[in-house]
Specification:
The complex is a heterodimer. By secondary structure, chain A is mostly helical. Chain A has helices at residues 8-23, 28-51, 80-99, 108-127, 131-140, 142-152, 157-186, 191-194, 201-218, 227-234, 237-262, 264-269, 271-290, 295-314, 319-350, 361-364, 366-380, 386-401, 403-410, 412-428, 435-438, 445-463, 466-483, 505-514; strands at 61-67, 73-78. In chain A, a hairpin with a 5-residue loop joins strand 1 (61-67) and strand 2 (73-78). In chain A, helix 13 packs antiparallel against helix 14. Chain A starts with 7 loop residues before the first helix and ends with a helix. The relative contact order of chain A is 0.09. Residues 501-516 of chain A have low confidence and may be disordered. Helices cover 73% and strands 5% of the residues of chain B. Chain B has 29 helices and 6 strands. In chain B, helix 18 packs parallel to helix 23 and helix 26 packs parallel to helix 27. The chains are: A mainly alpha, B mainly alpha. At the A-B interface, helix 5, helix 6, helix 7, helix 13 and helix 15 of A face strand 1, helix 5, helix 6, helix 7 and strand 3 of B.
Chain lengths: 516, 667
């Protein structure tokens, strides 16, 4: 059945489901321990998954299929791209549980259950090979997130959860209709089959728009991004981590798995829309991030700008763009997750997210200042961190298609440096003026244990991204081959000059010198 | 193995000192970093001499795979050739000396391990930059030195001015990086590779081809070179992107010497020289490089004339000297540009460290108006500064010899003349005029600091030290006694002083002689033998021009600051508008604030309040909520926490509907 002779994906979904149910019935501390244990086991299983993944092997690995009613099947299987996103999920999950260890004191069992249930859904989304299974898991992901914001969130949680819900629901209904039509037309709900099914170009247009409605919200793309800052601000720290770390990747995954390979012609047709919205997003949300007073809002807006780089890379239709977009997704998952944890660390101490209430933290929290600096730099895309590799590849790919769009998108590196360093300055630099800030202790061992692994992963992905790129290489190749027929022509139009008899460097110089 | 040690020892030391920090304490941290740098330096000089003696070819040592994405491949690798060898000795020597100097200078700082860790980290990044074999690794080093510069400018992060200067340095550099990145993208698009040797080999064939960039039809090589040059302008503080460099003086003085004088700011010049065969394919790009370089040389010199902060004078001087290097490259004399980079590293680091020694002696006072008469108080520093001044002003006798700057700066000015192009002539004229100004501001600094009567008591720092005010003090010294710096600071001054005196004489043949130079560089940069030969053939008046300019500058400075004490003030009165214009640095900061910084915040608020909240939310989710609420009259319930249960019911209903549809679809 697969290389492990063992339904590991089902296990990875069943285990947290079981633990989630148990959590509902046990005491607070037992729930914490159970959740941590389960997520750690899942991380170990994730490592097994990665270690046994055959690079260069079949496209779909660890395949499981159980026919259910009708043409609906419990079909799971992953390619390299799915695997890396599952790895991201199982890596961040224990960290989320750890981040909630002390800060959540209300209804702990339910809280842990919500997170474990979320993990089930997220692994399921990335592993689903049946389009309806995907849909159910994709939409159901809303529920635990919605509960996490609505029950354990901040003061204005109701408005935030309502907004979050309204936006995401909007897109999902049309996507469902599109899926039903597709299954009707192709006669199968099997994703691998659909990936190679050619829909009529006219139909593609409508189907693409229907999927776009859902993915653009999830991404989120400008102008349907306004749910994100509110959701982040109100969510508890771990909720923000998982929201930024994994849920935002679902939109990108959707484009990658559905929109591009299933509707290549329509994707090409709507390139202007994607490029236009993404360009606006980079500049607009970066400028908005610059003037934020609330740390979480600032990072939330920066996420929108980063996700715009993902959409630009994906719709570059070439290998560098798509590989870059995937690396940005992974990197952003780590970096923004870590940044939200950094906010959580000081929020737990002072109970405010207002930037101006802090200042001078480098003095009394040097370890914190160092890690926060590292993640700030990774967010800015400093070479040597994960942020750079993805950003660079996406933009290099994009440049092959359109230099104008690249020029605008690359201004993000200036603006990003502006708002992140401005944030860092206000939080970590300056004198310690507030007495309560002065009393804040440096990172505890628990907090260190949450942030250090992410820091290591960020550096690893920055210095030796090959570990992360090797598994996705063939799958991106398959995708590029699939969409190649619709790939847009670049705007460079390189034309060789007059036959100048190809002079060598030395001869040019000699000629250059003799002319005067 | 040598090159790996040279590059990675500083990184290792930075990690030990940085993570060890307070755990291992001051002395071990300082010892580890300094020892690593001296080891690096000791290994670098033999490499350099190898290239001088044997004129070896380039060597590339692979380290690790970095990125492979389709046909875009780049690895971590260390490239050594003559050009790199020059940079290796410059970087490791100045860095080692600055580490040593910092033992004394930073002695009272409570945060020393962090400082030394940053210094070593900087050195590592700079070495990665100069050993890059592909554009992306160069960019890694480029950004790495930018990070270290940011951290070191903001080292005293409690001072608001320091953290502001740090951000400014990083962000302004990022503007340049935008150009650099687009240049890399374009280069990859055109050549299909980011490997420097492959690009340089293919570049001549691309001459004359055209490409569309951002809707404009342009000459391929011109646009690529100009984009990359924007990066060089940012890092090397050329006119337009120079505003961060003077502010960077907020960092500790050893940092100014290492990063903002001798090494990092010369990265742009290094880049243009490394890619010189590429620049050679576009006359337009070279003309732009020449004009930008020459304009910077004169602009910065005019501002340097009137500054009162000793470090700012030297900072503008650096900016101006970098301009010289660029127009040398622009007229095709890359070897002369590198030669000036080499000698400048010694004498400018010397001037900065000397200024640091003065500041150290004067209880952190940086304003030259409150110096005076220090010649006898701190004689060693005085003689070191004197060597630096003689070197930068280019003192020497044509045909006989002189200080370091005499060889390198004169070669540049003569090359500009000999190039015969109109931009070259422009650069020549500017170069001579800027030499006059250089001489003036350098001697002004010397006269104000070391000669005349002490004006110390007017300084607030000195007042704090001696607990007196100008009114209560018995004389203008206030009874303050400046002390000569400790040996850890004087030794670097001595070594650099030797460099400032002798570097030009010792190495001018290898760097710029038409035959010797061609052999030494061995193809690591575009070496125009004809031009390098021509510079010996220029008319005598051209050769004497810079010496005359230097003497004139000295004379004016002497008359103004040595003889007549009220002359500067009178002159400032007479040319008040011009003086104010120079004093305010041509109002670049004010202009940028007006057209970039404030609009960015204004638009940010506009998009946030009027865009997100005023339009998207108002007509989007809030609009929907309002409609629902007014229609059903359940506004209260929305507020009171029922909403999520409603929504949950809706979602579960949705899931049920899906299931129903699927089952029905199947039957």
């Amino acid at each position: 059945m697969n290389q492990l002779d063992f339904p590991i994906l089902s296990l990875m979904m069943g285990l947290p489901m079981l633990a989630a149910i148990i959590c509902l019935f046990v005491g607070a501390h037992a729930a914490r321990l159970l959740a941590l244990g389960t997520t750690l086991v899942l991380f170990a299983l994730g490592v097994v998954l990665w270690a046994n993944y055959e690079i260069g092997g079949p496209q779909w690995q660890y395949v499981e299929r159980v026919e259910l009613f009708g043409n609906f099947a419990w079909a799971l299987g992953i390619d390299g791209i799915s695997m890396m996103l599952i790895m991201l999920t199982v890596f961040l999950m224990p960290i989320c549980i750890g981040a909630s260890w002390e800060s959540i004191q209300k209804r702990v069992g339910e809280y842990m259950a919500a997170f474990l249930f979320m993990e089930v859904l997220m692994i399921g989304v990335f592993a689903a090979q049946d389009i309806f299974l995907f849909y159910i898991l994709f939409e159901a992901g809303l529920i635990p997130m919605y509960l996490i914001i609505g029950i354990w969130g901040g003061a204005n949680r109701i408005y935030a959860s309502y907004k979050f819900f309204l936006y995401t629901l909007l897109g999902s209904v049309v996507m469902l209709i599109a899926m039903l039509w597709m299954v009707q037309d192709a006669g199968t709900s099997d994703i691998p089959t659909l990936l190679n099914y050619d829909f009529a170009p006219e139909a593609q247009t409508w189907l693409w728009l229907a999927f776009f409605a859902s993915f653009a919200v999830k991404m989120p793309m400008w102008p349907v991004h306004t749910w994100l800052p509110d959701a982040h601000v109100q969510a508890p720290t771990a909720g923000s981590v998982i929201l930024a770390g994994v849920l935002l990747k679902m939109g990108g995954y959707g484009f990658l798995r559905f929109s591009l390979p299933m509707f290549p012609e329509a994707s090409e047709q709507f390139i202007w829309l994607i490029f236009g919205l993404s360009m606006v997003a980079v500049v607009y949300t970066s400028l908005v991030a610059l003037v934020q007073q609330d740390m979480k809002k600032l990072i939330a807006y920066s996420s929108v700008a980063h996700m715009a780089i993902v959409t630009l890379g994906l719709f570059a239709f070439n290998r560098q763009g798509i590989e870059g977009a995937i690396i940005v997704m992974l990197s952003h998952g780590l970096v923004s997750g870590a940044l939200f944890l950094c906010v959580g660390v000081i929020y737990d101490r002072l109970h405010t997210r207002e930037i101006d209430r802090y200042g001078g933290l480098s003095i009394n929290m040097p370890k914190y200042a160092l890690l926060f600096m590292l993640f700030t730099m990774a967010s800015i895309g400093l070479p040597g961190t994960s942020g750079f590799v993805g950003e660079f590849l996406s933009l290099v790919g994009l440049y092959k298609v359109n230099s104008w769009v690249t020029l605008v998108a690359t201004t993000g590196i200036i603006l990003g440096a502006g708002y992140m360093l401005y944030l860092y300055r206000r939080v970590a630099f300056g004198e310690l003026v507030h007495e309560d800030v002065k009393a804040m202790p440096d990172l505890s061992a628990r907090e260190m244990a949450l942030l250090a692994p992410i820091a290591a992963a960020v550096m690893w992905m920055g210095v030796y991204p090959e570990s992360f790129m090797a598994p996705i290489r063939d799958d991106v190749g398959t995708l590029v081959a699939r969409i190649d027929r619709a790939a847009p022509e670049g705007d460079a139009h390189l034309k060789m000059g007059q036959a100048k008899a190809v002079p060598t460097t030395l001869e040019t110089e000699a000629g250059h010198g003799e002319s005067h | 193995m040598t090159i790996q040690l040279i590059v990675f020892l500083p990184l290792l030391a930075a990690i030990v000192a940085g993570f060890g920090n307070r755990m291992i304490g001051n002395v071990p941290a300082k010892f580890v970093t300094t020892a690593a740098l001296f080891a690096s330096c000791a290994l670098s000089w033999p490499v350099f001499f190898d290239y001088i003696m044997l004129s070896r070819a380039a060597e590339v040592v692979p380290v690790l795979t970095w990125v492979q994405s389709g046909d875009l491949n780049f690895a971590w690798a260390l490239r050594v050739d003559a050009l790199t060898a020059v940079m290796l000795v410059v970087v490791t020597t100045v860095s080692a000396l600055v580490h040593l100097y910092s033992w004394g200078y930073m002695d009272e700082d409570p945060d020393q391990p962090r400082f030394f860790a940053y210094l070593s980290l900087f050195t590592f990044a700079m070495l990665m930059l100069v050993t890059a074999n592909n554009l992306v690794q160069m960019f890694f080093g480029w950004e790495g030195v930018g990070l270290a510069s940011y951290l070191l400018i903001g080292f005293w992060f409690k001072k608001p001015s320091a953290s502001a200067a740090a951000i400014k340095a990083f962000v302004v550099n990022r503007v340049g990086d935008l150009g650099f990145m687009l240049g890399i993208f374009g280069t990859y698009l055109v050549f299909g590779t980011v490997s420097i040797p492959e690009i340089l080999e293919a570049a001549p064939a691309m001459a004359g081809s055209t490409i569309t960039f951002a809707g404009m039809r342009l000459d391929t090589m011109t646009i690529l070179c100009l984009l990359l040059f924007i990066g060089a302008m940012g890092k090397s503080a050329q006119l337009g992107l120079h505003t961060w460099l003077p502010d960077a003086m907020e960092g500790p003085t050893p940092v100014s010497a290492l990063i903002h004088a001798a090494t990092m700011v010369t990265a742009g010049v290094f880049m243009v020289c490394r890619l010189s065969p590429m620049f050679e394919t576009s006359e337009v790009a070279l003309a732009v490089v020449t004009v930008v370089g020459a304009s910077t040389a004169i602009f910065a010199a005019t501002v340097g004339l009137v500054q009162t902060d000793i470090k700012r004078v030297i900072a503008y001087s650096t900016c101006s000297q970098l301009g010289y290097m660029f127009f040398a490259a622009g007229v095709g004399a890359y070897s002369a540009a590198m030669f000036h980079l080499f000698t400048h590293a010694f004498f400018k680091a010397l001037l900065f460290l000397g200024a640091g020694s003065v500041i150290h002696a004067m209880h952190h006072e940086q304003d030259m108006r409150y110096y005076g008469g220090l010649r006898k108080e701190i004689p060693f520093t005085f003689w070191a500064m004197m060597a630096g001044t003689l070197a930068i002003t280019g003192v020497g006798i044509v045909g006989l010899g002189g200080f370091a700057g005499f060889y390198s700066k004169d070669a540049i000015i003569e090359a500009a003349f000999a190039s015969g192009t109109s931009t070259g002539q422009f650069a020549f004229a500017i170069g001579v005029l800027a030499a006059l100004l250089t001489s003036f501001y350098s001697w002004r600094l010397m006269f104000l600091t070391f000669w005349g009567t002490p004006r110390w008591i007017q300084s607030e720092h000195i007042q704090h030290s001696v607990h007196k005010t100008p009114e209560t003090a018995e004389d203008s010294t206030g009874g303050y006694h400046p002390h000569e710096s400790p040996f850890s600071m004087l030794i670097p001054l001595g070594v650099l002083g030797f460099g400032a005196v002798a570097a030009g004489y010792l190495f001018h043949n290898q760097f710029i002689d038409a035959t010797e130079g061609f052999r030494f560089w061995a193809g690591s940069l575009a070496f125009d033998r004809h031009l390098m030969h021509e510079i010996h053939e220029v008319p005598l008046w051209v050769k004497l021009a810079s010496t005359v300019a230097m003497l004139t500058g000295l004379m004016i400075a002497y008359l103004m600051y040595f003889r007549g004490k009220d002359r500067p003030a009178r002159l400032a009165q007479t040319f008040h508008p011009l003086y104010t214009f120079f004093f305010n640095k041509w109002y670049f900061d004010e202009l940028y604030n007006l057209i970039f910084v404030r609009p960015a915040f204004w638009f940010g608020r506009l998009f946030w309040k009027a865009g997100d909240e005023g339009t998207i939310d108002r007509f989007g989710p809030n609009g929907v909520a309002a409609v629902v609420a007014s229609g059903a009259g359940v506004a209260k319930r929305f507020q009171s926490g029922y909403l999520y249960s409603y929504a949950l019911v809706m979602l579960l209903g949705l899931a049920a509907a899906v299931t129903w549809l699927i089952v029905r679809g199947a039957n």
